[in-house]
């Protein structure tokens, strides 16, 4: 995974992640299996968009399409 940008708002920190070796959807499935929960799904029919997940402590992070999916 590669962090594209880090957003800080108030006392919260959110990472936007881009998979390096998987597709966005494969990475989302892997993270949910590891304990993350789905918070918001902004995937679009054209393959764009992102998925916001939360870790077990409630910290949110987004998974964006991989570079290969953006090409």
Automatic annotation (TrEMBL):
InterPro entries: Glyas_Bleomycin-R_OHBP_Dase, Glyoxalase_6. Residues 10-63 form the Glyoxalase-like domain. It comes from the Bacteria. Transmembrane segments: none annotated. This is Glyoxalase-like domain-containing protein.
């Amino acid at each position: 995974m590669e962090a594209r940008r880090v957003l800080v708002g108030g006392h919260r920190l959110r990472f936007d992640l881009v998979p390096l070796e998987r597709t966005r959807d494969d990475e989302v499935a892997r993270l949910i299996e590891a304990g993350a929960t789905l918070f918001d799904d902004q995937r679009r029919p054209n393959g764009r968009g992102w998925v916001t997940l939360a870790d077990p402590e409630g910290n949110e992070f987004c998974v964006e399409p991989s570079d290969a999916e953006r090409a």
